Amino acid sequence: MSVNISLFSQIIKQLDRNSFTSLVRKYDTDKSCKGFDSWTHLVSMLFCHFAKSCSVRDISNGLRSATGNLNHLGVKKAPSKSSISYQNARRDSELFESYYFAMLNHFGQHLKIPKSKLRIKAPVHLLDSTTISLCLSLFDWAKYKTHKGAVKMHTLLDYEGGLPLYVNISDGKTGDNKGAYNIPVQKGAVIVADRYYNDFSMLNVWDSKEAFFVVRHKNNLKYDTIKRRSVPLVRQKNIMIDEEVKLSNTSSYKKYSKNLRRLSVWDEKNQQCIELITNNFTWSADTISRLYKARWTIEIFFRDIKQLLHIKTFIGTSENAVKIQIWTALITILLLKMLKHIAAHPWYLSNLVAFLRLNLFVKIDLFKWLNNPFLNKPDNAKYGTQGVLF
């Protein structure tokens, strides 16, 4: 069956346009748009990430070169570079933020794939941040160091789906724990974080909301041991210490007065001892060590969005433009993971991005191409085999 629209058009058709239209009305982002409406803006920014366009000129020229396909994208005409720059600075970035979460609800339940046997039924949420360096003279609002600017993405990642449940975009000076105070805390869930989130006021809030946490504690933690727990000698040789403790520092104890469970786990690969604290006293020590090991998933997520999408450099210098580019990058990664999930072919995400980038405007059935991206090898018997020359 012949296909008359490009791969990019078919990908755009996976988006829920009714939800987007409702959000446009809510935020009133099409007021005085002068032809460059919110949907055209979204399509332009998604093209920026799929094609890894380096400038607004690349976006404009890239869409202009697709004459005849724009109507399938819901776009009347290719935007000019000045229109993209103008609306990046002025159109409310909350539109794209809200649309990401709308699409996460739309696709999210279909993307949950258990990645390893953690032996717990509780939802696992991974908390961390990543820093994106910026030129302070151009991005003067992105304070970080004296001569260097940056933005931080404070992210709460769903372990099973591999997609953010919460993102807070701040300047580089905002501490990791300060940027995570407003994360959504789900009752019964477990939050896994590194030592930068060893903030006892925040841990007390999580505990009061009946959530569990597994956090690597700082080396200067002061505590009194209340009870030693038995350590398995055969099956879990990496568990060195498992004990129940109480904070001995007065200021820390005022912030968190309950007992904590402290574990010391030997990391054979990096030849180091990892010390963890948790408010769960029923899981096995091995399960808690596996939970912390699962934290590496969020590092992979940060690597993917930085390497595969256009997010390390920005096409606009205002805070709003930066936020729009980050939120549309998250919408793009959501689409990519959805395509990867439904494909019969075992795609690596990097390969999928590279192949789509090369074939964005090729007219071929998207789902057939996802399932079988390579042409079948010809039958050698049919065409004959070349004889030996010498």
Task: Tell me what the structure shows.
It is a single chain. With 390 residues, the protein is of the alpha+beta class. Strands 1, 2, 3, 4, 5, 6, 7, 8, 9 and 10 form a 10-stranded mixed sheet that branches. Helices cover 37% and strands 19% of the residues.
Describe the structure in brief.
The protein contains 14 helices and 10 strands. It has 390 residues and is α+β, with helices and mostly antiparallel strands.
Keywords, separated by commas or semicolons:
about 400 residues, about 35% helix, about 20% strand, alpha+beta, 10-stranded mixed β-sheet
- The structural class is alpha+beta
**Helical segment tally?**
14
> What's the rounded overall pLDDT mean?
89
Low-confidence stretches: none
The best one-word shape is globular
State the order of secondary-structure elements, H for helix, E for strand: HHHHHHEEEEEHEEEHEEHHHHHH
The main β sheet shows up as: 10 strands, mixed
Helical amount: 25-40%
Ends: how far apart? Answer: 46 Å
The rounded Rg comes to 25 Å
Work out the strand percent: 15-25%
